[in-house]
Amino acid sequence: MENANMLFRQYYLECLSHASYLIGDRSTGKAIVVDPQRDVDGYIEDAKAEGLTITSVFETHFHADFLSGHLELAKKVGAEIVYGHGADGRVDFPIRTMKHEEHFSLGRVDLELLETPGHTPESACLVVRPEGPTGEPYGVCTGDTLFIGDVGRPDLLSSIGFTADDLAHQLYDSLHTKLMMLPDATKVYPAHGAGSSCGKNLSSETVSTIGEQRRTNYALAPMTVEQFVEAVTQGQSVAPLYFLFAATKNRQAHDLFVDEKEVTKMSLEEVIAAQANGAVVIDSRDDMTFAAGHLRGSVNVGLSGRFAEYVGEVMDPGTAIVLIGEPGTDVEAKMRLARIGFDNVLGALNDPVRVFFENPTVVEQQSRLSVEAFNERISSMSNVVLVDIRNPGEVELGSIPKALHISLPSLLKRIDELDKNAPTVVFCRGGYRSSIASSLLKSHGFTDVSDLIGGYSAWTAAQT
User: Fold this and answer.
1) Is 428 part of the annotated catalytic residue set?
2) ∠ CA 218-220-221 to the nearest 5 degrees?
C-alpha cells in the first residue's frame, strides 16, 4: 500500500513461506522493517529509492524457521532493534522493548505494539495507523500469532519450559481480547503463508482482514478455550530438526551474513576427504537426475522445493556442507542455507557431470519403484519395511497397509529403529520428500533402499 504519506510494502520469500515488511513515513523519511530475512540489501535499496532511511527493525518474536536479519540491519544502517516487552533480558545484543499498547511514531505514521503471547511467550503484533495514534488502523503485522486461515502453533516450545496447553491458553486470550478488538477492515499481514511448519492450515493468500478471519478462520470460530486448546494443539506436523537451533541463534550475537558472489569450487578428492571428515554432501539437483547418478553417500534435497527447510531436517546444525548442483545454482543454494543459519558450506563440487563421467566408481544410482514394481516387491518379499515419512495430518487421511510412520523431520533421530540390512521402501505424498529420505538412509549405510515414484498419491490412484 502506498499513499502520499505512508509506504507499506510486503516481501514474500516463497522458499520459506516468509513475509516481511517495509513501512515508511514520507513526511519524516523514517522507515522500519518488520521480521526481515537475513539478506537485507533489498530493504535498504528499496528504502533509499523511496527517499527513506531505515531507523528501526521490529521482530514479532524469536523466529524458529529462519535466521532473521535484525543484526545485519543494525550493522549496515544503524537500525535500532525493537521487540515486545517479553524479550527483555533474553538476548545477547542491544534492543529496545515496548509494552502492550505502547506507541512508536515514524512521524505521521503511528505504530502500536500489542503483546500477544501464545505462539511464543514474547510474541507481539504491530498495528499500523497512517494518520497518527488516534487514526483508523490500516493494518496489523501479526507475526506468527494470526495467519491467514490459521493461528501460530503453541507447541514448539513445549520441550523447553513451556507446555503447549499453557501457551494455547495465552494465544486464545491474545486473539480474542486483543487482535479481534481491531476493526473488521484492518488488514492482516502475517509472517508466513502456506507451507510453513509454524501452523497446519495456512492459506496461500498473503493478506486478509480481521473481519474475514473472524468469519473464516477455524481457530476463531465460536468455541470454549478448552476446545480452542485442543483444536490448535492437535494434528500439527513434526517441527523441523533445525527449529530450536534457529530460535536460539536469533537470540544470540552471531556472525553476520556475507553475500558472496561465488562458492569455492572443490575437486572430487577434496569432496571425498570432507565427506570422510563428517561433512554432509547435499545434492540439490532434481530427484530424477539424482536417481540416474550421484556421488555415493550424498543426500538429495532438490533446490526447486523447500530446500533450506528440508536440509535442516536431515542433518545436525553446525555440520559442514558440500554442495552438488546444476551449473550456476551454488550461490543460490548457499544463500538459502544461510537464511536458516547454516553457514558451514565448504564449497561445491566442480563440474559434477564431468567428474561423474570420468569417475564411475564413486557414482551410484537411486532405486525408485513404480507402483507396479512396488506392489510386486511387497507381494514377493515378506520382510520389506515400508516407511511413511509424511506428517501426522497426512497419515490420518490414510496410508499404505503395514507402513511404519516416521515423519521426515524425525527420521534422523529415529534412524536406529530401522534395520539397515532389511529391504526398505519409503514414500511420501508425491515423491520429493521420499527421495530425500531414501538418500538419507542410504548415506547412513542402509543396503537396500528404494522410494515410491509418485508417492502415496500414485499408489491410491492405482487402487481405483
Assistant:
1) yes
2) 70
Which residue intervals of the chain bear CATH 3.60.15.10? 6-239
Query: Tens of pLDDT along 291-336?
Result: 999 999 999 999 998 999 999 999 999 999 999 999 999 999 999 9
Matching CATH number, 265-364, of 3.40.50.2300, 3.30.470.20, 3.90.79.10, 3.40.250.10: 3.40.250.10
Fold for domain 367-462?
A: Oxidized Rhodanese; domain 1 (3.40.250)
Q: What's this model's pTM, rounded to 2 decimal places?
A: 0.93
Task: Pick the catalytic residue from 125, 141, 198, 428.
Answer: 428
Is residue 152 within 8 Å of 119, Cβ to Cβ?
A: yes
pLDDT in tens, 389-413: 998 888 988 999 999 999 999 999 9
